[in-house]
Design goal:
Elements: H1 3-20, H2 47-61, H3 68-74, H4 78-86
Helix pairs in contact: 1-4
Length: 88
Amino acid sequence: MTESQNEQFKTELKVFLLETCRKKMAPEELDNDALLLGPYSALGLDSLDVIELSAGLMSRYGLRIIDSRDARKKMMSINTLADAIQNL
């Protein structure tokens, strides 16, 4: 994947994430390294958001989230999420 394609994919992930979690934020406002989960999260996602995201990621990209530890690892940031999907 070229750098341009990689950035386009990450933007697609941001849009998916923001729409799924119903966050009113432009994709450009979310840094690729910003924490997605936890108390210092840029989005303030909760456990229900993680469940919705997990189901959506499985349906759309085939990414399986096994448990909360796996979610924290794969959904740490847009970069880690993109890596997890691209390494399927």
